[in-house]
Amino acid sequence: MNTSLTLSVDGKEIRSTEKMDIYEEPIHIVSAHISELKMTVAQETVAGKSNEIPAMQNLIKSLEIEGYMVVAMP
């Protein structure tokens, strides 16, 4: 039985928010997914695209995982 799972981390810009007056800039989020289960396990908003890497690091730390392969998607 294969018990290894892959945690994928991806950042996205919510483009529909760029034209909303209540936001100064588009909302950016980072998400963590367990690929084999096709499940999102965590998301976090990010101040801007340039802050995605530190946000991803914090998101991964908050999951308190051990023994997973983590993949950052370009």
Textual characterization of the structure:
The protein has 74 residues and is of the alpha+beta class. It has one domain. Helices cover 16% and strands 39% of the residues. The protein has 1 helix and 4 strands. It has a 4-stranded mixed beta sheet, with helices on one face. The radius of gyration is 14 Å and the shape is elongated. The termini are far apart.
Return the string of H and E elements: EEEHE
Describe the strand arrangement of the main beta sheet, using strand numbers.
3-2-1-4
Radius of gyration: 14 Å
- What is the percentage of strand-forming residues? 35-45%
Which descriptors apply to this entry?
74 residues, alpha+beta, 4-stranded mixed sheet, 1 helix, 4 strands, 39% strand
Question: Would you summarize the structure shown here?
Answer:
The chain is of the alpha+beta class and 74 residues long. It is built from one helix and four strands; from the N terminus they run βββαβ. The longest helix is centred in the last third of the chain and has 12 residues, at 52-63.
Mind sketching the topology for me?
Elements (H helix, E strand, L loop, with lengths): L5 E9 L12 E8 L4 E8 L5 H12 L5 E4 L2
Parallel strand pairs: 1-4
Antiparallel strand pairs: 1-2, 2-3
